[in-house]
Amino acid sequence: MTDTVGADRVLVRLVVNGEPASVAFAPNKTLLEVLREDLQLTGTKHGCELGECGACAVLVDGVPVLSCLTLGLACEGKAIRTIEGVANGSQLHPLQAAFADLGGSQCGYCTSGMILTSLALFEHNPQPTRDEIREALSGNICRCTGYQQIVDAVEAAAAILRQQSPVPAVSIRS
Amino acid sequence: MTPPHTVIGLPRRRVDGRAKATGQTRYADDLAMPRMVFAKLLRSPVPHARIRSISTERAASHQGVHLVLTGRDLPVPYGILPVSQDEHALCVDKVRFVGDPVALVVARDEESAADACELIDVSYEPLATIADPEEALHTQEPRIHDYGDHGNVHKMVAMQFGDVEAALADADEVFEDVFFYEGNTHLALEQHATVAYLDGDGKLVVYSSTQTPHYLHRALAKALAMPARHVRVIAAPNGGGFGGKSDPFNHEIAAAKAALILGRPVKITLTREEVFYCHRGRHPVLMKFRTGVKRDGSITGVDLQTILDGGAYGSYGVASTFYTGALQTVTYHIPKYRFRGCRVFTNKAPCGPKRGHGTPQSRFGQEVQLDRIAERLGLNPAELRLRILEHPDALTANFLHVRTIGLGECIRRVVNASAFDSRHRHMGRGRGLGLACSSYLSGAGLPIYWNDMPHSSVQLKLDRSGGVTAFCGASEIGQGSDDVLVACVAEVLGIEPFDVRAVTGDTDLTPVDLGSYSSRVTLMMGNAAIQAAERARDILAHAVGRKLDVPKNRLVFAERRVFDAENPDRGLSFRDAICTAEAMTGAVGATGSYTPPKSEARFKGGGVGPSPTYSYTAAVVEVEVDESTGWIAVPRVWVAHDIGRALNPTLARGQVEGSVYMGLGEALMEEQAYRRLPPRLSNALVHKFPSMLEYKSLTSLDMPEVFTELVENPDPAGPFGAKEVGQGPLLPIMPGVANAVYDAVGVRIDEVPITPEKVVKALADLAAGKPGRFGPASFPDVRWPDPLFVPPPWEGGTGEAINERRRDKPAPTGASRS
Amino acid sequence: MIRLPKFDYYAPRTIAEAADRLAAHPDAMLLAGGTDLLPNMKRRQQTPSVVVGLAGIGELRLRTNGSGHTFGAGLTLSEIVRDAGAARECGALHQAAAQVATPHLRAMGTLGGNLCLDTRCNYYDQSYEWRKAIDFCMKKDGERCWVALSSPTCLAVSSTDTAPALIALRATVALTSASGTRSLPVSDLFANDGMHYLTRRRDEILTRVDVPDQTGWRSTYWKLRRRGSFDFPVLGVAAAVHVASDGTVRDARLVLGAVASRPLVCVSAAESLIGSGWSDEAIARAADLAFTLAKPMDNTDFALVWRKRVTRDFVTYALRELRGDDMRPTRVKIARHALEGLHY
Fold first, then answer.
1. Given an 8 Å threshold on Cβ–Cβ distance, is C306 in contact with B760?
2. What is the pLDDT of residue B4?
3. What is the pTM assigned to this prediction?
């Protein structure tokens, strides 16, 4: 992080989905804008840009944050994980497979934020109860599903990850 | 021999599920193009004014600005209904609400465009504002629009089916109740966005978050004065719609105009606040039900009056008005029925269609009133409803044709699952159960503009790869329409859904489907897809039959093969079958179309309500109400939906749960509320809180457990027997909550949303010996026109009004032909 | 997309450096978690030409627990929520932090930021364009308070959850400027004026919170809001009691949030409990006294009459919980979750 006095643009080094990226952008840009507009990572969505919906949630150094309220320049040197970095090559992450299979995505617009937030939940709680899942996702508004199939999906993914079975029980088609 | 279904009815990953879970789905704002420029709309800060002048020079010369457009650049009006062509992309001489767009600035980036908007000088001559229906009814001048029935009354409708006053006189008891349903909005998570550009040929392309690409296509052609054949609309996958992306919008037309002028891609993405100004959400409705009943619960007649607060423009409002009175008759048998509805203009964001379009408001009143009736008659509310259910294959008093009706089974299922009979009225103070029912269309019987063409068409391309591409104008808004398309085609052709590619919502590539509204897509597109696939199957069967020397009616399409039913080893792979046909007769393709059956309702306004078939829902809501604070908790909801047949049960259940979610939001907290400042100090009339924080929608923590049952009794009208599921299950939730609150604490909240403040007020009244009720005191005295008189079928009626000037055809949505 | 206005950004590494920046730039504002300032800047409620980012200052993340607890102002609310010592000994703070906004916003927002949270009002927390449509208000760009036309002062609402809790815990804050550091009770950090709601000078940085030894004290926080997450409080009740071995109340603190432009310390209500044996009557008396003090205005969610009315109920919930009643079912109904096992 550096001072930006008078600068039109700042050069910021990030690690995005495991890959180093140096990006120059205006100092008043949020991480959301940098991801979508400067890195073309449009999988991160926006529903309000004011911290009122959770659609733009990403992981910064593993912590679920709202990219719409994070200054891009404050991410110097940090590891950013977006929805584009969740799958393992063409193999979907069990969370992605479960969202696709179990009705977790309808319009799909909240899905990125839901999946990234669920990943953060698994980091500290690999066996969440349904109530704990609801609590973890309480900063992500979904207007389609009524959350029930989202909770189903997160629960199913947690079960798969726990088993760490080579062939997940949820069908995965790439 | 028909093999069992291998796709239909089985839970399955939706075809667009992977793209959504990987972030690959490209919503409109995700599109970026070389040389793209960015637009912002300058919106009116005043609620009602004449525009004296607009000066754009300073904005036009601002750094980075490419273009400034005003109303003069787009003089042609448009609107979704032929009878309400009352919108301009940019206001011409008047602004009608805070948020009405007056200018478009296009610049190198969004910031420059926003900054330049501040440099546009608009001189307004303020006009008196109209904030609610009472004011609209009593204010002749100023008029918000110079069309409409009179003053600020947009539309009055009145129709009567049999002698209702006699029916009420004949009743053992007449119930009179007034209800109010507050407006609310869709709040789709994706904000509307559009990218407009000229393709290499020089034709206009508009890529937009729209539920209705076909109607947008027509509106663009009209407003831009261009031939539709030179305009291409691509419906991007919608990040939620719920009816909020069904109108042609200002920003779509203005951005298209800018792209035509600049020859560069123009993107516009609305802010959340602007989405609140687009609105087109649920109309606030004040309503009065007079219902006559016999002691056994049977209804002798219903007299319904509604007043809709329409906001500043017509939108779908004429249809919405009819819908507030259209579907009362398809759930319970009502032998005589009168409906009078009135929509007024106010200086607020325009209302329109939201999930359930016009029907949830009066459904709320009807189902709460039935709860009262049951109590007064000493009947269990479920028993009352079961007694008065409409019958299958009935023609109702207002000439709606009920086909299959699974409502009785829905009621029995939720009653059993919730142990309603033993728990209702026996849960103790503060806890209660409420039952309510509903019905909804599986697609509107008539299109929005008059025409005789199909409502949905599907085109299939089969080629030597073994793959099938299905083209259809339907738009995927999250409801799963692409999945329905693929599933129907794959099922009929005996292939895997993964072998079918859906190309949808593209007016250049896909045949017309009218759009994702009125719960029409599954039924209409599904039937069109089946027809197309059956025709393709016939082409393949013809070729394979000839090649294998098997009669074609003996061929089976399954497991990616075409084979002889009597000798399954004798057959071709599906790919080889296509190659055979292609070699024999040339390129393989087929089309299918669907047009709803003609309605028996031939009176004016009879175009609203008919549907190929109706879905039915019953719900039981459990509440816990704190008597001191009025705080309401909803721990559980049981819902059963008559879906005919669930094509993909996972998606069907998701539609039900999502409907319950949205219904609970409306029941408990969602309000599109306005604030008027003291008139002696200010002319301001503003949306109270156009933000996702203050417009309250349920979070994961506020959502109860939902127990869903799908009642499957295939309906001959639907594809594989399917009816709609996206809207109907929302409807019983609001009255279910109201009835449960009554069961819990003995007060009637005759108003939505049902909030703790209202409960406390009603409880205080009850304690003071007054009626324990919160709701509107009275219905205004409206000077209704004489109703159209249509004798019901059992009085020899033919579906025509006996006091109506003879017309050639029923007009869609009560509209004149155009 | 709503975008931030332009600003110069400084990223100091020390408190002293940050204080120098504040001293040098009269309109500079401090950015901690960004969850309050950045939305306000996007809505042009605040348009500082200089933003001083505090995230790189390690000193602000101090945490000690000798006698009492010291929390660096830069600790996130999630860190407070996960803090076992705070959960054990500073119940009110733990519960208040756990009910702020959402998991993401708690993972971003800081303790210092929540204490300094801008006051809120439905006429003020709006975009520039919306505020223009009402010709602005006293708090920003306008003349009048639309909430109460005759009010000479702004009536925006104190919406911090942690402040009432910390006041009940008798905490103090340290404020550092280029000219030194001073300490003051959290209750003295606030003024009952929606515009000038902090006694912090604009060149001062709130660097840490000191909670005194809580031995013998129990505390709790109850929050009223429409939904189980996101929403700011429209009523907060923080209570702390010191119970003698005979079960009577030896000392008590009761603080209301979100019913005025500052947290309201209910002195007489708290005193009425002292010496009482926790009877229902004693609790009802305290609740009545607190109720009298609450002055909600019509500028938040929910109707003001009702908000005032339920002050009694919420004070009762808090005191009954401290008495030892099992309030978990009520808590779950109000908060929509049990406030247990939270990580963020």
1. yes
2. 84
3. 0.97
